[in-house]
Design goal:
Elements (H helix, E strand, L loop, with lengths): L2 H9 L9 H5 L8 H15 L1 H26 L7 H8 L2 H13 L2 H11 L3 H6 L2 H5 L5 H34 L5 E2 L5 E2 L1 H30 L5 H20 L28 H28 L5
Antiparallel strand pairs: 1-2
Length: 304
């Protein structure tokens, strides 16, 4: 029996019924809801896979490497460096914003989310555990909900880890103090750190939308690599189209168009217009592609 089947059998013990209350009190029935046990089982699988841990390790190292690189670049800089380096030199808090921007545009965060979401259903089908999961029984809707919730948790953990590590590197390697916003106003360091954490959460929302695309793609194949590649093709195609002025009419509908529109969070007062548009776009993508995944999974003939 595979590890997945063991977790599934443990996760989907039926919830206790009212006449089992005495049994619960006596410790004979697990009072934890089955959906929560199933969710925890899925989290253990997602965060226990070596490739996912390796991805998190790389995401941890990259902010450290960027911080050291920027520190060395600034040390050798004669004053004619790129503007963002001057911002980082003035306040280490801006290192976080620089790192998040680079990791989104260079597809480092999207790659990690693409791997986790692209293999979510496909890996179960390829290993022959999907049918076993559905005969426990789990239910296809609940299976999909738990899978997507685990993807969102992974995306949130990845984005917050990048944010926190970048903040720490900024504190260690650069001067930190009151933060000068894009609007020219200066706010205390604590308020500035809060704004940066909000940027990290915004990036997590963007990755949650990408995870929904990967989840949908994962329901159409038994080969995780194909689903992962499909997500990356969507991201790269979106980035290319977003740079072509001839396609400006569709820019607002591209999945990656709103990834970097968090600059309103760095103004006083906060300009929510771009952020709200971005969050609305993420929500729409989540609804559309989770619905596609649901329609596909609930209507498919599961044979593996």
């Amino acid at each position: 029996m595979s590890t997945r089947q063991v977790f599934a059998s443990q996760a989907d013990v039926p919830d206790p019924v009212p006449d089992q209350v005495s049994g619960v009190a006596a410790g004979r029935v697990n009072p934890v809801p089955s959906w929560w046990r199933f969710f925890c089982s899925e989290l253990r699988l997602v965060f226990g896979r070596m490739r996912n841990l390796a991805l998190l390790g790389v995401l941890f190292i990259i902010p450290v490497a960027f911080g050291i690189l920027f520190r060395l670049t600034l040390s050798a800089n004669t004053g004619e460096g790129p503007p963002f380096l001057n911002q980082v030199a003035g306040n280490g808090v801006f290192l976080t914003l620089t790192v998040i921007t680079l990791m989104l545009t260079l597809l480092m965060l999207p790659l990690a989310v693409a791997v986790v979401s692209g293999e979510s259903i496909a890996v179960e089908a390829s290993q022959g555990t999907l049918r076993n999961l559905l005969t426990v029984p789990v239910g296809r809707t609940r299976l999909l909900a738990v899978k997507y919730a685990a993807i969102v948790v992974f995306a949130l953990a990845a984005c917050l880890m990048v944010t926190v590590v970048s903040l720490l590197m900024g504190v260690i390697l650069f001067h930190v103090g009151p933060v000068t916003l894009l609007s020219g106003d200066t706010i205390p360091l604590g308020a500035g750190v809060l704004r940066v954490l909000l940027v990290g959460l915004y990036a997590a929302g963007a990755m949650a939308a990408l995870g929904a695309i990967g989840l949908a793609g994962s329901t159409f194949t038994q080969h995780p690599v194909g689903a992962i590649a499909g997500v990356l093709v969507v991201v790269v195609g979106s980035e290319i189209c977003d740079q072509l002025q001839q396609l400006s009419a569709i820019h607002a509908y591209l999945p990656s168009h709103w990834w970097l529109t968090w600059d309103g969070l760095l103004r006083s007062p906060v300009d929510w217009s771009g952020v709200e548009h971005g969050l609305l776009s993420f929500a729409i993508y989540i609804v559309i592609f989770v619905s596609i995944a649901w329609a596909r999974l609930t209507s498919a003939d599961i044979t593996s």
